[in-house]
Amino acid sequence: MTVSPPETAQDDAIIRITDLNKWYGDFHALRGINLTVQQGERIVIAGPSGSGKSTLIRCINRLEAHESGQIVVDGIELTSDVKNIGKVRSEIGMCFQHFNLFPHMTILENCILAPMSVRSITRNEAEETAMHFLTKVRIADQAGKFPGQLSGGQQQRVAIARSLCMKPRVMLFDEPTSALDPEMIKEVLDTMTALAEGGMTMLCVTHEMGFARQVADRVIFMDQGEVIEENTPEAFFDTPRQDRTKLFLSQIFGH
Ligand code: ADP
Question: What is the pLDDT of residues 6-52, one digit of tens each?
Fold first, then answer.
C-alpha cells in the first residue's frame, strides 16, 4: 500500500492581514480588512478616491500605524517594535506617485545610497547592482544625470530601479502613474509588467484598469475602508457581483 503525503493547501503567504482597523482621529479609514498575499502574486487594489487604498498600502510598511488587527510580513508582525519595522521595510520596496528622488544626486547616487548605508555593501558592489537594475528599467545610459534632467516617466523608472536595488521581496505601488503625462504612462506600466513577469510579488494601487486586466492575478475592490469584492481580473471586470463594484466600473468605463 502506498501512503500519499498529507494534502496541504499550497500556502506561500508573504503578507497576512487580519481584521485590520485604522482610524484618523474619529474617522474609521480601514474597517476590518482581511487580505493574504501569496509569494509571486500580483494584486491590483482598485476603488474610488478616498476608499482607503493608499492607507492600506502605507500600513503594510508602517508608514501608517494601525490601531487593531494584525499585519504579518514574511513571518514578522508589524507592531510599534522599531526593530521589526526595520526588518519588514528591508523586505518591501515602495514606489509612490511622486518619485521622491534626491534632486542634488545623480541617478546612480540615488540608487546606491540606501544599499550602502542599510545593507553595508561596498560602493563597487552597490554600483554594480544599481547598473543592473537601471539596465532592467532601460535607463542605464542616464545614470550620470540628475533627476531634473529626466522626464517624469524616466524618473519613475529610476524610482523603481532604486527600490529594486534593495532586493525587496515585495513591491508596493501607490498610483505610480497618476502624476505622469499620458505619453509616459505606458513606459512605466511596461516596466511594472516586466517586473511582474520576473516573479516579483506586487501590490499596486492604480487606476490603470488595462494593467489590472493584463497583469493582476487578483483585483481587490475597496470602498469606504472595506474590501467589497475580490476576484480574478476576468471575473472582476466581466461579472462583478456587488452593486458598488458595478457602479465603480460603470463610472470608469461609462456604461
Ligand atoms: P485612497 O487611496 O483610496 O484615495 P486614502 O487611503 O488616501 O484613500 O484615504 C482614505 C480616507 O482617509 C480619505 O477619506 C482620506 O481623506 C482620509 N485620510 C487619509 N490620510 C489621512 C490623514 N493623514 N489624516 C486624516 N485623514 C486621512
Answer: 444 457 899 999 999 999 999 999 999 999 999 999 999 999 999 99
Q: Write the residue with the smallest CA distance to atom 24 of ligand 1.
A: 24
Which residues, judged by CB distance below 6 Å to any ligand atom, belong to the binding site of ligand 1? Answer: 24, 27, 29, 47, 49-55
Quick one: pLDDT band at residue 253, thresholds 50, 70, 90? confident
Burial letters 57-66, b for 16+ CB under 10 A, else e: bbbbbbbbeb
Q: What sign for the dihedral angle of Cα 87, 90, 93, 96?
A: positive
> In the 8-state DSSP scheme, what is residue 181?
-
Query: Best substitution site from 27, 174, 244 to test ligand 1's pocket, by max atoms within 8 Å of Cβ?
Result: 27
Residue nearest to atom 21 of ligand 1 (CA): 24
Ligand 1 atom at minimum distance from 175 CA: 2
Alpha helices per DSSP H over the chain: 53-60, 82-89, 107-118, 123-136, 152-164, 182-197, 209-215, 233-238, 243-253
**What does 137-165 look like in DSSP terms, one character per residue?**
TT-GGGTTS-GGGS-HHHHHHHHHHHHHT
Phi, then psi, of 96 in degrees rounded to 5:
-105, 175
Give the pLDDT of residue 8: 46
Please state the pTM of the whole predicted model. Answer: 0.93
Residue nearest to atom 25 of ligand 1 (CA): 24
* C-alpha to C-alpha distance for 220 and 146, rounded to whole angstroms: 37
Asked if 4 and 196 count as a contact pair (C-beta separation under 8 A), the reply is no
Triad 57, 59, 60: Cα angle to 5°: 70
